[in-house]
Amino acid sequence: MLTDYIKFAIKRMINGFIAILLLIFFVFVLIHAAAPNPAQLARIYAGNPHAPPVEIQQIIKEYGLDEPLYVQFVNYLKDILSGNWGVDPIYKTSELSLLIPKLAISLQIVIPGDILAAILGLLSGAVAASSRGTWKDKTIKGLYITTWASPPFFIAIVLQLVIAYYLNLLPAGEPVNELLTCPPHYTDFPILNALIDRDWTFFVSAVRHAILPSLSIAIITFGLFTRVTRATMIDSMESDYTKLALAKGLTRRYVVYKIALRNSLIPVITLIALFFGYSVAGAVLVEDIFSYQGIGYYITQAIENLDYIAVLDFTIIVGIAVIVANFVADLLYGILDPRVKVQ
Fold first, then answer.
1. What is the gyration radius of the CA atoms in the chain, in angstroms?
2. What are the structural domain ranges in the chain?
3. Please, which residues bridge with residue 94 across strands?
4. Residue 87's beta-bridge partner residues?
5. How far is CA 187 from each of CA 100, 119, 192, 197, rounded to the nearest angstrom?
6. d(Cα 336, Cα 266) in Å, to the nearest integer?
7. Which of 81, 85, 178, 199 could, after both became Cys, cross-link 194 (CB 3.0–4.6 A)?
8. For the chain, how are helix, strand and coil distributed in percent, rounded to 5?
9. Rounded to an integer, what is the distance from CA 216 to the centroid of its chain?
10. Which residues pair with 313 in a beta bridge?
11. Whether pTM exceeds 0.85
């Protein structure tokens, strides 16, 4: 059984690597579709549509933009795989060295937001399924349809106005109180750095500043988790094995939350994998509203500054996040449902 699982994992890993290569090829095609000649492409790399001819020629020579397309793609692939994702035209430093710390800051709100969305979706979906057709079911359905249909910026603004400004319970923006001194740089995650350094003042401040953005992401995304959990649990509760469990004398509560809910985990894991990449990309609006200076906030500034390289690199990062999350989901499938390994 372990050998089958290892083969299953290797196969999924190879598929994921191929998907990443296809993603890089797509971004390469996108660049050349936007800029079909070397001079236009050099202006994208320069981040300046009015770059002087001397700078244009220097960029063309540095990046080999006058080479045949297949040579350019091989060079681009080598650069991406080796960590050379271009130089930021504004800060004049490696683009990757700017994006990774920003991504880490975003993950401080994306990961808790996705986990909270999954928990809310599982619980509300289970309650709706077990109370099918009642006022509880209709209330939950109306709630998740409303939140799912609402624009992300609207949810974020409402939370900011009500909780931060009117009730004054949590900070309205920024990743941390600006008056505090950052702890030593152990990782790219400020909250984790504060925890390692036992800087509890900074840690509490960073956590409080992350609550509203995380809650916004959770409220925006929990509706689909609820819908899928409800539909899957209704199917499970109408199956023969749940009817047999009830006939054996097990309580309905046990059957709903121990048996039917567990069988609803696989589609929910699929959604977590898919929504992880969506949340990283969707955090652009949430971060901009809360001035939470993660990768979404950075990309907003990059678009305003015509930093196309940062935007393209962000596309690759989001794509890789989705592919890796789906790979992890596939591995979890093999644990939750052994039949997946054989199939």
1. 24
2. 35-84, 95-342
3. 87
4. 94
5. 11, 28, 7, 11
6. 7
7. 199
8. 80, 0, 20
9. 14
10. none
11. no
Query: Can you tell me whether residue 308 is helix, strand or coil?
Result: helix
Q: Quick one: tokens of 141?
A: 């359905």
How far is CA 46 from each of CA 74, 92, 97, 308, 337, rounded to the nearest angstrom? 21, 10, 18, 9, 50
Superfamily covering domain 95-342: MetI-like (1.10.3720.10)
CB 305 within 8 A of CB 90: yes
Instruction: Give the count of beta carbons closer than 10 Å to the beta carbon of residue 3.
Output: 8
Please, which residues have CB within 8 angstroms of residue 80's CB and are 6 or more apart in sequence? 24, 316
Q: Is the distance from CB of 208 to CB of 176 less than 8 angstroms?
A: no
Q: Which residues, at least 6 apart from 115, have a Cβ–Cβ distance to it below 8 Å?
A: none
Q: Is 183 helix (H, G, I), strand (E, B) or coil?
A: coil
Tokens of 159: 């939370």
What tokens were used for 83?
A: 């960590």
Are the beta carbons of 224 and 117 closer than 8 angstroms? no
